[in-house]
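Hey, can you fold this one?
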Amino acid sequence: MISDPGTPTLDQLRVFLTVVEVGSFAGAARKLHRATSVVSYSIANLEVQLGVSLFDRQTTRKPQLTEAGRTVLAEARTIANGIHGLRAKVKGLLQGLEAEVHLVLDVMLPAARVVDALKAFREAFPTVALHLHMEALGAVTERVVSGGAIIGVSGPMNEGIDGVERIGVGSVELIPVAAPQHPLALSAANAPGASRELTQLVLSDRSLLTKDRDFAVLSNRTWRLADLGAKHMLLREGIGWGNMPAPMVEEDLSSGRLVQLNIPEYTSGKYTFNVIYRTDLPPGPAARWLIERFVQQAASEGVVGA
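Sure. Predicted structure:
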């Protein structure tokens, strides 16, 4: 037995995998359009190179994998899948398809839309690597402008920025909510200005492009959070009130963990979405397909943004 195995060829591994698949040397020969003797010779050479017996030819009429053969089989399949993936990626590149797409999404985008787009993308472009980034407010536009993402789905914090193309893809309703024990939730009709005196939880804009710009901030007292999930958690715990995307708190409202507030200054509002990309970096086929998917989603919901 050799201690330093040789390097098998891709053709040898292909023959090996075909024998395993069809269950016989003769069947593999027919599938590969080769003589049975050629298939046997290829397997024998592979065994010599690796220094192990891959098939038990003594106890059964049909070749059965040995323990070593089963180990080699797993690795051979990995190599074959890698080659198939490589060829598919190169084929896509030759056809103008991107090798990867960097996508940045606003955290306000409903989860159902995110999941729908990503699942459909994976099915349509299995060879394209998708890099997903989640950002809030102006940070979406900032990542696209900086080149960190080729396309983004941004909220309304991208106006007045040159060199950015915008395509409306609907909106989400933002509603004021709080825990049932919160003072604003205890009143069926709050007096004008009541919300200004109680702590509002506000999603913080970490970008430099739109720093210090607020969206639907009413209170004179604010706690600023960089994470929408953290804001959601604190709202349910009764620490302040705040505006949330309606789909994200739908279950909380049904269960009574949160209450939609009756605030004269703000009953609800639309948070509009745009697909954005740099005009000097136009998206490729896969990225354009994603754009169209977001447009179709908005159209199917009847909420195409302006």
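The mean pLDDT is 85. Let me know if you want another pass with a different chain boundary.
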